[in-house]
Amino acid sequence: MSLNRRDFIKTTAATAAVASSMSFFSTEAEAKIGELAYEGEVGKWISSTCQGCTSWCPIQGLVVDGKVIKVRGNPNSPAQRICPRPHLALQQVYDPDRVKTPLKRINPEKGRGIDPQFVPITWDEAINTIAEKIMNLIDTGETHKFLLMRGRYTYMREIIYGTFPKLIGSPNSISHSALCAEAENFGRYYTEGLWGYSDVDFDNTKYLLAWGWDGIASNRQTPWFIKQMGGLMDRARITCIDPRFSATAAKADKWLPVIPGMDGALAVAFAHIILAEGRWNKTFVGNFEDGKNYFVAGSEVPAEVMVEDKLVPVVFNEIHTNGVVAWWNLELKDRTPEWAEKLCGISAEDIKTVARDFAAAGSRAISWVSPGAAMQIRGGFSSMAGHALNGLVGSVDAEGGILEYSSVPHAHTPDVKPYIDSRFKNSLKQHKIDQRGTKDLPALKEKSGGGVVTSRVAKGVLEENPYDIKVALSYWNNFVFSSMGTKDWEKAMAKIPFYAHITTNLTEMSMFADIVLPAKMHMFERYGYLYTKQNLQSYMSIHQPMIKPYADAKTDETEVPFMIAQALAKKGFDLPLKYYQENFKDPETGKTPQTPEEFDLYAVKFYTKPVWDGSSNQKGDTINSWNELLEKGVWKTKKFVPGHKIDKFKTATKKFEFFSETLKKAMSGHAEKHSMSLDEAFEAANYTCRGEVSFVPHYEPPVRHGDEGTYPFIVFDHRSRLNREGRSQNTPWYYDMLDVDPGGECNKDVMKINPLDGKKYGLNNGDKIRITTMFGSVESEVKLWEGVRPGTCVKCYGQGHWAYGRVGSENFGSKPRGYNNNEIYCYDWERLSGSSPRHGGHTRAKIEKI
After folding, report:
1. Does the pLDDT at position 834 exceed 80?
2. Does residue 777 carry a pLDDT above 60?
3. Measured between alpha carbons, how far is 341 from 321 in angstroms, rounded to an integer?
């Protein structure tokens, strides 16, 4: 699809729902390249940050007469460009369906399709109502029954998420992280000790093995990968492993349409070939002392061999890794390509070819594991297996390989302990409502219960386990829509006696709220900051207001908790306000914040001070004032130099672990806590492994809900390059341009199936269908497409809102536009990490023509 500027303007003008708000688009010729004429004047470029995905790209907006009319990549950023998502944000910020004022619910009945009968109220009434509910919990000694839920965030989250719940006596700060990538992080952490997203050295890469990774459309560092893809195609081989023919697969050398959930089988078969054929990186992993290869298919590495009539020990001198022989003996010896072919649907010859080519690239080969391959019910070990391939070829912390990243200087949050009321001692020790660390939910971020189990909150609320929730507050989230278990979430939100939602739009979550608070939109209307990495450089990127906030909106992470603290102080509980005023003074003037707006500004200046005060100039860019940071919008570190991590991995052995002593230690602690054996602990976590194989990357049979005879299709989903994490569904441009995604159809929400399956089941393009699983039934339209593996069906995640706005829903508050994938998925978890298996593959469906 191509779209020139004239067509772009025509498309905009045709969008009736937003035309009045976006009349500032001009059809006149541009004054200069990169500058747009508007009533005879040229605007100003102001720096900020896009958060349409986790790339967190520095951007700039062109502001003319108080309106932002255009966006571009910040020329000071590592990528210097942007993808389509920031452009869609223009229709978000000027969305006429945004919440304009605080709202109060009049109808006490809650549920889908029930009109909340919201009425406008003042900020004073809204904040006082919330403060009264919190004071009631304080007075009754039940502060642990307060729940704070966070979705996307800036690093100003430390105020509302990191400190506010503690200051009012609650342990319940629940993040969205388990809906995002925790199983992906699990694989890295339990092999190399990194719980976070890796960087890559694409400038020097020779082979990219992409596990469900659609880098030019979604996942991490999208604009940088778009920029890099041309050069990468020239100098490297690219293999995409994905049941769907993605945008990245279209540019790859090879597409392997794996059966969903079988990534682990494919990964261990690759590892089998690399070891059996002696193709591992011997300078990184090591070698057998006598130079012979004892990795023989079907056999364990012997402890001894006969040499000249004498038994001689077989010694493998391991260098920077731990347990490669144990991995072979416990798992890999029988994982031949022929074995894997029967499970994953990829031919043995393709498996051998890819494994050999990958290994031939050595330390310049990257095995990139994305959520698609990891966020499965038993995806923890698939994640480990895919990442372990980097260890075999020595590409971890290597030029051309997969890397960690430099840290970004920022101030640390002041200690809240001196400001915590002694009455809260017992409340703060209570277990969290998401049940992390319980017998069947290890959530092993470093230790039992160290992670989060976001979607389990609904179950905890419904079961009142470990207690009931009486007051809830959330921001920048829509778990009723975005989490699996949508029906349970609806019941749970209806059950909570008082709930307040801080949001830009009335989402599904908002429809259960007692109070709705209008939020300023990131990127255009608020302060904040973020730090991440692209192209071997870590950076801090700033949020700052480009325009006045829409109607009467406030900043969710700073202004709202400060206002609640002020209201609590008036009611006799002043510790939160004291904490905020005494610790977040203006770093330049020393002035104490008296208003929410002052606190918002002073707090972001406090956290970013190590970058703008000049003290970090030797570590990266030169910035010497707050105003200079605002002008440039971004501060970058020097280029990351690989090699610092070798033998300093944050694992139990300090090595890259094929046999994960780190996992064994964490799971042993969990088992001991619950008086179980390790085998019982893995069984409780819904894994089949027993014994020592539990600590090496191994194949786990996928969980499938529904028998193949009744439900012949395996359902999975993908993300659009237009998805602003599900927040772009009330923008007309989203629907008008959906064909930018392979297999996409403009202004439709289609279920894509292979033409072979269409012929088999008598289905044709455009047929209206009913999709039924064990968990629900929805209606859609067929798109016959060769880009999906036979026996599977795939739909883009994001549509199916029954709230959000007049564009996103067919009938606001009741009838969705399209359907939400989570409506027909099981309600389950990857329990070792706490993740939601959000990409599907775990649920079977039948499809019937209506």
Report:
1. yes
2. yes
3. 29
- In the chain, CATH 3.40.228.10 sits at 187-403
Bridge partners of 474, per DSSP, are: 149, 501
On whether the CB atoms of residues 290 and 254 are closer than 8 A, the answer is no
Distance between CA atoms of residues 168 and 187, nearest Å: 36
Q: Which fold has domain 103-180+413-519+550-607?
A: Rossmann fold (3.40.50)
C-beta of residue 241 within 8 angstroms of C-beta of residue 249: no
Residue range 753-767: mean pLDDT, rounded? 97
Q: Is 563 helix (H, G, I), strand (E, B) or coil?
A: helix
CATH code at 187-403: 3.40.228.10
Query: pLDDT tier at 221 (50, 70, 90 boundaries)?
Result: confident
Contact at 8 Å (CB) between 378 and 687?
yes
The DSSP bridge partners found for residue 119 are 104
CA distances from 268 to 449, 475, 521 (A): 29, 41, 45
Q: Rounded distance, CA 645 to CA 391, Å?
A: 13
Phi, psi of 309 (to 5 degrees): 65, 20
Average pLDDT of the segment spanning 631-655: 94
Cα separation, 837 vs 29, in Å, equals 49
In angstroms, what CA-CA distances link 28 with 9, 44, 528, 766?
10, 18, 35, 40
β-bridge partners, 768? 781
The pair of three-digit structure tokens given for residue 590, joined into one six-digit string:
């020393």
Given pLDDT bands bounded at 50, 70 and 90, which one contains residue 726?
Answer: confident
Which pTM value belongs to this model? Answer: 0.93
Contacts 24+ apart (CB under 8 A), 114-119: 114/511, 115/813, 116/511, 116/512, 116/513, 118/506, 118/516
Query: Of the candidates 729, 747, 728, 751, which has an alpha carbon nearest to the alpha carbon of residue 737?
Result: 747
Tell me how crowded residue 31 is: count the other CB atoms within 10 A of its CB.
Answer: 14
Mean per-residue pLDDT for 541-550? 95
- Asked if 333 contacts 271 with a C-beta cutoff of 8 angstroms, the reply is no
Q: How far apart are CA 119 and CA 276, in angstroms?
A: 70
What is the pLDDT, as a whole number, of residue 218?
Answer: 82
8 A C-beta contact, residue 786 and residue 794: no
Q: How far apart are CA 264 and CA 249, in angstroms?
A: 20
> Residues 556-587: pLDDT tens digits?
999 999 999 999 999 999 999 999 999 999 99
Mean pLDDT on 28-42: 37
Of residues 557, 507, 635, 474, the one with CA closest to residue 49: 635
What is the C-alpha separation between 199 and 39, in angstroms, rounded?
Answer: 44
- Residue 26: is its pLDDT beyond 80? no
Residue 635 CA to residue 94 CA, distance in Å, equals 29
CATH of domain 1-101+520-549: 2.20.25.90
Sheet holding 537-543, edge to edge: 528-534, 537-543, 634-636
348/321 Cα distance (integer angstroms): 28
Which numeric CATH code is attached to 713-849? Answer: 2.40.40.20
Q: Are strands 515-518 and 498-503 parallel, antiparallel or unpaired?
A: parallel
Contacts of 310 (CB under 8 A, 6+ apart): none
How many C-beta atoms surround the C-beta of residue 810 within 10 A?
A: 13
Residues of the chain with CATH 2.20.25.90: 1-101+520-549
Residue 393 has pLDDT above 60, yes or no: yes
Give the pLDDT band of residue 422 (cuts 50, 70, 90). Answer: very high
Give per-residue pLDDT as tens, 681-694.
999 999 999 999 99
